[in-house]
Write a structure and sequence with these properties.
mainly alpha; 3-stranded antiparallel β-sheet
Length: 118
């Protein structure tokens, strides 16, 4: 007795094009959002660095009775403030230097070239 197999149907080219089109549309929407999320996280990490450095500047003033150097070199070389003996690096602008602004003795951002953020 011969066994008959039902005819198997493959995927049509139209279905493949539709799936590729839908995946492309979703990718076009989602990928830019991830880029924005990543940049926002980097800016937030920089703001956290600034807040931590400002707390250390205040602590230095309380302990030493004077403000640290504008480039923060005296805080960096003292292992009590930065145990790694180095300033945290900005995730937004690697190589940018955090500095104390003369008015108010606070780090409000950092300088790299002509731009200041956060």
């Amino acid at each position: 007795m011969a066994v008959s197999h039902p005819r198997q149907r493959g995927v049509s080219i139209g279905e493949v094009v539709l799936v590729v089109l839908l995946v492309s549309i979703i990718a076009a929407i989602v990928i830019p959002r991830f880029k924005n999320i990543t940049m926002d996280a980097k800016y937030e990490a920089c703001r956290t660095n600034v807040a931590n450095i400002n707390a250390l500047v205040q602590l230095y003033y309380i302990k030493e009775g004077t403000w640290p150097q504008p480039d923060l070199s005296d805080i960096v070389i003292d292992g009590e403030y930065f145990p790694e003996l180095q300033m945290p690096e900005c995730p937004v602008s690697p190589g940018a230097a955090y500095e104390i602004w003369p008015v108010g003795h606070r780090v409000t951002g950092h300088v790299k070239g002509n731009s200041v953020h956060p």
